[in-house]
Amino acid sequence: MSVDARDRLLSVASPIALFVLWEIAARAHWIDVRFYPAPSSIARTFGTMLANGTLLANTLITLERFAIGIVVGGVPALLLGLAMGLYRPIYAIVDPLISATYPVPKSAILPLILLVFGIGEASKIAMVAIGMFYPVVINTAAGVRQIDRMYFDVGRNYGARGWAVFRTIAFPGALPVIMTGVKLGAGLGLILIAVAEMLGAPSGLGFVILNAWQIFQVNVMYVGIITIAVIGFALTVLLNEVERILIPARPRH
Amino acid sequence: MADAKIRFEQVEKRFFLRDGEHVALGGVSFEVGSGEFFVIVGPSGCGKTTLLRIAAGLEAPTSGRVTIARGDGDRPENAMVFQGESLFPWMTVRENAAYGLRMRGAPRAQIDDVVGHYLDRTGLRAFADAFPHQLSGGMKQRVSIARAFACDPEVLLMDEPFSALDEQNRTLLQQELLRIWDETKKTVVFITHSVDEAVSLGDRIMVMSSDRGRPKAFVDVPFTRPRSVLDLRATPEYGRLFGDIWAELRDEIRFPVPEPAA
Ligand SMILES: Nc1ncnc2c1ncn2[C@@H]1O[C@H](COP(=O)(O)OP(=O)(O)OP(=O)(O)O)[C@@H](O)[C@H]1O
Ligand SMILES: [Mg+2]
């Protein structure tokens, strides 16, 4: 067996081993099943929620808010970041504003967001958008600024003007750094959507988790947590794949 | 000069620095003929790149001007082969070579045609879809040259395109450049450190002084075209020219005197 194959096997085996241990411990009542129900019983709840449609409905709502928030926060961040990277005055104007507001923990402004956007969809989307915005705008600006000046000279010499400079030099040149920002922003967005849905939302996975706590349905709580975890994992895989396709030019080790 | 293609008139460039100013070019004037392969040799730091960047419109002269005579047709005024690596790492060989045409909005079919031609001429056809990091130094410079020729400019500006290459690769690329150039007879301004390279390639050589880029001597190269770079180097005429230019250059190269320790 090659070292690679061995490592793959081990990384599949370790979570399985954990579940098996957990199951045994629960059945033997070594752990308190009120807090740590056996995986098999969580799986049964999972099946029920899947069958009656509540899991799918709430997952879709969360995903929809998340996706809209990613776009609403990401696209302006990308454009602003490109402009900041290319034009020094824009950087000089915008950078202090970003530096001053960036350190505020995003979850701390949730009440403010609720106040401004109400308890409807807008506040959930706004939270994801804010989570996405900062890493993307900061990384895009930094990514453009680290591009060797020579590439812009080449562009000018060969007739690139205006939007073509964004498209053929600034964006692709900064893309590896931008993608790092997108991954960070998406991760932050996922955390924030869960938090936002726990406060003032009648739907979504965050609501499912909090509601399960209120009515003490621990199994349902676990189903919600695991579903979000799976979304997070799928997101990482997806973004890595996007990165692989978009940045084929980078020497791979 | 009657049919001057490029006219440098009193080109002056000062760089303003924290501790005063630095005169890189102090009123440099000369002309390059239409269809001429014009080579500039000069010591490091004498202002060669600055002069070329001004000709390319990438830098504004402090005073004076550079004019490039326009032929007929809608051609770009100049295309530059930059000193050092200048290919976009995020584009394939084909996309890099097509860049100038694409930016000028050339039709797809024409781009494919012209780029295909120059990829063939530079032996890069098989690497059309490779990225720069997959190429050797010589191949990268071939792509830069293909990119410059492909957009069919009025004049070609080349800033030490082969200086980073080893001896064999350099000779090879010099020969290839001459072969491609023979087909188009474009006006070329070619910068080099190497006297060898200047004599092998040029119709006329300007020796640039380290004193504010002042043109120090113009040397006509009598060799006929097409040339074989290797055969040329075996001739006595070559040795004589080489010696002449070195004699001009020798006074310009100052060996740094180490600062006495404080
Ligand atoms: N942006 C700049 N700011 C200040 N000084 C500069 C700048 N660009 C060039 N110089 C100075 O102008 C002089 C000429 O530089 P230039 O790059 O044209 O030399 P060069 O002849 O091309 O040298 P090399 O053969 O080493 O490439 C040098 O003394 C350099 O330090
Ligand atoms: Mg130079």
Can you name the CATH architecture of chain A? Answer: Orthogonal Bundle
Could you list the spans of chain A in which at least 5 consecutive residues all have pLDDT below 50? none
**How much is the radius of gyration of chain B in Å?**
19 Å
Under the CATH scheme, the architecture of the largest domain in chain B is 3-Layer(aba) Sandwich
State the CATH topology of the largest domain in chain B.
Rossmann fold
Give me the number of helical elements of chain B: 8
The portion of residues assigned to helices of chain B is 25-40%
Overall tally of structural domains of chain A: 1
Would you kindly provide a brief summary of this structure?
The complex is a heterodimer of chains A (253) and B (262). By secondary structure, chain A is mainly alpha-helical. Chain A is 80% helix and 0% strand.
Structure, described:
The complex is a heterodimer of chains A (253) and B (262). Chain A has ten helices and no strands. With 253 residues, chain A is mostly helical. Chain A has a single domain, classed as MetI-like fold. In chain A, helix 3 packs parallel to helix 6. Chain A starts with a helix and ends in a 7-residue tail after the last helix. With 262 residues, chain B is of the alpha/beta class. Chain B folds into two domains: 163 residues, 3-Layer(aba) Sandwich (Rossmann fold); 63 residues, no CATH class. In chain B, the strands form two sheets. Chain B has a six-stranded mixed β-sheet, with helices on both faces. In chain B, helix 2 crosses helix 3 and helix 6 packs across helix 8. The model of chain B has no long low-confidence stretch (mean pLDDT 92). Chains A and B meet through helix 7 and helix 8 of A and strand 5 and helix 2 of B. Bound molecules: adenosine-5'-triphosphate and magnesium ion. Magnesium ion binds next to helix 1 of chain B.
